[in-house]
Amino acid sequence: MAPTVTTTLISSSVINTLRTDSPPVTGLKADPSFSRLFSTGTHKDLTPKLGTEFRNIQLSQLTDDQIEDLAAFISTRGVVVFRDQNLSEKEQVAFGQRLGELQEHVHSYGKHPALIPIHVDKNSKLAAGEVWHSDMSEEPFPPAFSILYMEKVPLSGGDTLYANMYAAYDKLSPAMKEVFNGKTAITRRKTSILRPEKVARDTVCSHPIVRTHPVTGWQIIFANAPCTTHIEGMTELESKALLDFLAQHIEKGSEFQIRLHWEARSVAIWDNRAVQHQAVWDYWPHERSGRRVVVIGNTPFYDPEGTTQSAALQGDAVNPKWNRLFEH
């Protein structure tokens, strides 16, 4: 069952507009072989379990069947990147809406409230996202997908790191998995980055530390260092020790990380339920500029009958409910 979701509201106007139910999950009708997606263009995996690069395929031209396959494929691979995309603001929004409902944002720009500017140059004091995180995990319905179109990149540097949270969970010892399975933690961001009319400025939610992916059924570490404040039912000392352990586990897990090198007109799509990411600001005073939209996800839940990525890929996922994508 899904954990209790608690939201601190600041006005009645927020109550009238705040979503109270999870949106539909995209990817449940995918072809397990992803053959419809693979029928166009070329692709190569960046590592055996994380990341895939596509070329010679335009996102704006995908069919509905290919979109369904793509959603499930991203959920298995964590992050995919499409090179040489011709994607206007309008087309990026339209593409994102095919994956699900878009989250409106307080820092939006352009002609749509879901478009988020990503810009760093010689005048910037910092670059956002320089710690490991998943986007907006403190919200009641954390994003399923983030879609980042990079328009301008430095000659070198400016990469994004991604960490596979399926593999991070798999690497835990059985005893440590039992410590976290079924536990919930409070996530909080005092100033919401969503539009004020859509969500309260002080958002507090209870989410599972280990969540089950609604498409793959694989278990995921879902603690987010910038926003996860404490584990429910534990003392402050106990909670801090365990959350610090998870943060170090993710940060030092080079064997389940990739470093994505950007090219101008590339689009990266990642599953915030399955990966965490970190920006690398090593290119000052040069410019890096793009735009992002995020797709609203489901209420995080933990299913004790869920499987793991390693078990599924080895053919050992014994629960038919969570083995659908790997029956071929």
Brief digest:
By secondary structure, this protein is of the alpha+beta class.
Task: Give an overview of the whole structure.
There is one protein chain. The protein has a single domain, classed as 4-Layer Sandwich (Double-stranded beta-helix). By secondary structure, it is α+β, with helices and mostly antiparallel strands. It has helices at residues 12-17, 35-38, 64-77, 89-99, 165-171, 174-180, 236-251, 309-313, and strands at residues 42-45, 52-55, 79-82, 116-120, 143-152, 160-164, 184-189, 203-208, 210-212, 219-221, 228-231, 257-260, 266-271, 275-279, 288-296.
Quick tags:
Double-stranded beta-helix; disordered N terminus
Gross morphology: globular
Query: What is the assigned CATH homologous superfamily?
Result: Clavaminate synthase-like
The chain-level mean pLDDT equals 84
Biggest sheet architecture: 7 strands, mixed
Topology pattern, helix = H, strand = E: HHEEHEHEEEHHEEEEEHEEEEH
Which second-level CATH architecture applies?
4-Layer Sandwich
Q: Kindly name the structural category.
A: alpha+beta
How much of the sequence is in beta strands?
A: 15-25%
State the end-to-end CA separation: 29 Å
Number of strands: 15
Q: What integer value in Å does the Rg equal?
A: 19 Å
The fold-level CATH name is: Double-stranded beta-helix
- Uncertain spans, ≥5 residues at pLDDT below 50? 1-19, 191-200
Major sheet: arrangement of strands: 1-2-3-13-5-15-4
Number of domains as seen in the coordinates: 1
Count of helix runs: 8
Keywords: Dioxygenase, Iron, Metal-binding, Oxidoreductase
GO molecular function, one term: metal ion binding
InterPro entries: AtsK-like, TauD-like_sf, TauD/TfdA-like
Family: Belongs to the TfdA dioxygenase family.
